[in-house]
Design a protein that fits this description.
Layout (H helix, E strand, L loop, with lengths): L4 E4 L7 H4 L8 E3 L9 H13 L2 E4 L13 H13 L4 E5 L2 E4 L2 E7 L5 H18 L4 E3 L13 H12 L2 E5 H11 L3 H7 L5 E6 L3 E4 L2 E3 L8 H13 L6 E3 L8 H19 L8
Parallel strand pairs: 1-2, 1-12, 2-3, 3-4, 4-7, 7-8, 8-9, 9-12
Antiparallel strand pairs: 5-6, 10-11
Length: 279
């Protein structure tokens, strides 16, 4: 059983996830939007999962960078869901997906600007005050910068400091962004404030041309991303949970287990016998 590595729980797994011992993650992650107000069979299944594993939530709909007001009715549902299932972590994307009350169903980049830092940090503080816990924000992949007045890493560090929130350290996204925008991902990590890292995401991507990678979460992790992962771990001062993301093109459980074990081997090599606290 991996000591450090979790998996995103999906309905695609069905009963096999609980009935088989092939996948034995340290924790599971779910998108709360997919489980809020769910009843019947799937609520029973979710209850079984929650009784066996710590659960993290990774949201899709907060749209923290949106010009629209925060959706307090939605946040009430999030707060109730987290209380009902004793969930300790709520993470979201440093992006926006809603404008003029229209859901775009994509993660759009936020301008790397000082006014955006202040705007988003204030919104994060309001969310944290309401939920009574720190929000964990994820570095997202993006394909074109928008009206940038500072670097990406300066922008992220400024938000972490201003909002006093936590960081979801997505290694694959950093690799993808470094490739697409021609910067050194290791240098980026060295400049990033890692004191707020709550947990790590690892995933695969798809190279669609010589100068473009798309962050799909639908392929196995490639060796350069494993290498960047090991480098990133060497920069952290404590063990943190690591999540394997696979959102579609789901392989057999044995293949997922092999990826999880490979990640865990790297974690144990770096962190020796130290264990994470998945809660």
């Amino acid at each position: 059983m991996p000591k450090h590595v979790g998996i995103g729980y999906r309905k695609d797994f069905g009963s096999a996830f609980l009935e088989s011992d092939i996948l034995e993650p340290a924790f599971v992650e779910v998108a709360p939007e997919n489980w809020i107000d769910v009843g019947g069979f799937w609520k029973k299944e979710f209850s079984k999962v929650a009784s066996k594993y710590p659960i993290y939530t990774h949201g899709l709909s907060l749209s923290i960078g949106s010009p629209d007001p925060l959706d307090w009715n939605f946040l009430k549902k999030i707060k109730s869901f987290m209380h009902e299932w004793d969930i300790k972590v709520y993470s979201e994307h440093l992006s926006y997906s809603k404008c003029d009350n229209a859901h775009i169903y994509d993660l759009l980049p936020i301008p790397f600007r000082e006014d955006a830092v202040k705007y988003i940090a204030q919104r994060i503080k309001e969310v944290q005050d309401f939920l009574g816990r720190k929000l964990v924000i994820e570095i997202v992949s993006y394909y074109t910068p928008v009206a940038a007045e500072m670097t990406e890493v300066e922008f992220i560090n400024a938000i972490l400091k201003e909002a006093d929130c936590e960081l979801l350290f997505d290694i694959n996204n950093i690799y993808v962004n470094g490739f697409n925008h021609n910067y050194d991902p290791k240098q980026f990590i060295e400049q990033l404030d890692l004191s707020s890292v709550k947990y790590i995401h690892m995933a695969g991507h798809e190279k669609v041309s010589d100068d473009l990678i798309i962050d799909t979460h639908g392929q196995p992790i490639i060796d350069p991303v494993y290498d960047l992962f090991e480098f990133a771990l060497s920069k952290l001062d404590k063990p943190v949970p690591v999540l394997l993301e696979r959102d579609f093109n789901i392989p057999e459980m044995a293949e997922l287990a092999a990826e999880m074990n490979q990640l865990d081997v790297i974690c144990q090599k770096q962190w020796s016998n130290e264990s994470i606290n998945a809660h």
